[in-house]
Design a protein that fits this description.
This protein is of the alpha/beta class and 269 residues long. It has one domain (5-268): Spore Coat Polysaccharide Biosynthesis Protein SpsA, Chain A. The protein has helices at 15-28, 47-54, 69-77, 99-107, 149-153, 175-180, 193-203, 227-241, 244-268; strands at 5-11, 34-40, 59-62, 84-88, 92-94, 111-119, 125-126, 129-130, 161-162, 165-166, 170-174, 207-218. Strands 3-2-1-4-11 form a five-stranded mixed beta sheet. Strands 5, 6, 7, 9 and 12 form a five-stranded mixed beta sheet that branches. Strands 8-10 form a two-stranded antiparallel sheet. Helix 8 packs antiparallel against helix 9 (244-268). The termini are far apart.
Length: 269
């Protein structure tokens, strides 16, 4: 049987989330020939044993080390047999059948990647896409996800929206596109690699689209401890995608952002 969709998950100590994640995949892909492939980044919580015992059909790839998010995905995709791949975080629960999303990709070969509506643990709307970094929006991280009133409120009137980038917790795309752009850039360990991937997809001439009619829960939370990793990721992005005076101004904007964050942190102490 030909596999339509390969679900790719990178796991690192995600044992508490795996049962609900896998069961939602099985439910929301019912009738669609699929496989689940997991790269385990050397978890120490018994994740591998749990998967082997309770979900033996999952293709499990123990890495023996923490490869990071991008490289972990790249490793798993090499084993994928599907025409399409879904890069999915382990701490997610799909809320609807994915057939309509696959239909969208089938209908338009110029769509390089598709994302859907993201909800938090309380099923409240979270922003799942944004704008590519510029000197202006790098001054405040909030500006990177400022896409207008509908995206601010989570109330959408359209079925599809063309955007710049989508969060890496749910990325549905043709496998050929992933391979064409070389997958994730492994110079990123964690954070901003999804923005970089979407930038490469854009440069290859493909659309990046957001489909709000479908949703998934993502047990995510931002805290200031992530800021240094995000800043490091943005520095890598700037060095790869900006040149000349634009490169200079983007680094200046990010430096101002870092200074402001340091001042705010000192005031909180």
């Amino acid at each position: 049987m030909d596999i339509t969709l390969s679900v790719i998950i990178v796991n690192y100590n995600g044992l508490p989330f795996l049962k609900n994640c896998f069961e939602s995949i099985l439910k929301q892909l019912k009738g669609i020939p699929h496989e689940i492939i997991v790269t385990d980044n050397n978890s120490a919580d018994g994740s591998c044993a749990y998967i082997a015992e309770h979900f033996p059909d999952v293709v499990l790839i123990p890495s023996g080390e923490n490869l990071g998010f991008g490289k972990g995905n790249n490793v798993a995709v090499k084993h994928a047999k599907g025409r399409y791949i879904l890069l999915l975080n382990n701490d997610t629960i799909l809320q609807g059948h994915l057939a309509p999303a696959l239909d969208v990709l089938e209908a338009d070969p110029k769509i390089g990647v598709l994302g859907i509506n993201m909800l938090n643990a309380n099923k409240e709307y979270l922003k799942a896409c944004g704008k590519f970094p510029t000197p202006a929006n790098l001054l405040r991280f909030k500006n990177l996800v400022s896409l207008g009133a509908e995206f601010d409120k989570g109330k959408f009137s359209g079925k599809l929206y063309d955007i710049d980038w989508l969060t890496g917790s749910f990325l549905l795309m043709p496998k050929r596109v992933y391979e064409q752009v070389g997958g994730f850039d492994e110079d990123y360990f964690m954070y901003v690699e999804d923005v970089d991937l979407c930038k490469k997809i854009a440069l290859a001439g493909y659309r990046r689209v957001f489909m709000p009619g479908l949703s998934y829960i993502h047990f995510v939370g931002h805290n200031a401890a992530k800021d240094p990793l995000i800043i490091k990721g943005l520095e890598t992005y700037i060095n790869k995608h900006a040149k000349g005076i634009y490169h200079f101004f983007m680094h200046c904007a990010l430096s101002i952002n870092k200074i402001v964050k340091k001042i705010k942190k000192k005031k909180q102490v």
